[in-house]
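Hello again, I could really use a second opinion on something today. I've been staring at a protein lately and its backbone has me curious. You're getting the sequence in one-letter code plus the fold written as tokens. I'd be grateful if you could look everything over and explain what you see. No rush at all, and the record is pasted right below:
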Amino acid sequence: QVQLVESGGGLVQAGGPLRLSCAASGFTFSTYAMSWYRQAPGKERELVARITSARGSTNYADSVKGRFTISRDNAKNTAFLQMNSLKPEDTAVYYCNAYIYVGSRRDYWGQGTQVTVSS
């Protein structure tokens, strides 16, 4: 059974850091690209950061560049999102996503973790 379990969310003051983790099981983690998305109230879900499976190449939304860092530990089947210099506008539910192209795109999603940044 495929599972993505996020942890590390919570309440933090503006300017502070937070580290999210995504523990994966039930699939070959190292072969999947990993992403973090977020969804704020009344807004659409948006891509925050992505890391590829092979080279570990990363890309980020413009709004988080220089503040957030995505990484992965294939030995522990875990992805991370280090968030620094947090802003109130970073407040959202953050979702972990794993995807792979096998003919078509296959996606797995976590249940989400709430991040609240107070001003």
In short: The radius of gyration is 14 Å. The chain has a mean pLDDT of 97. The CA atoms of residues 35 and 50 lie 4 Å apart. The longest strand covers residues 92-102.
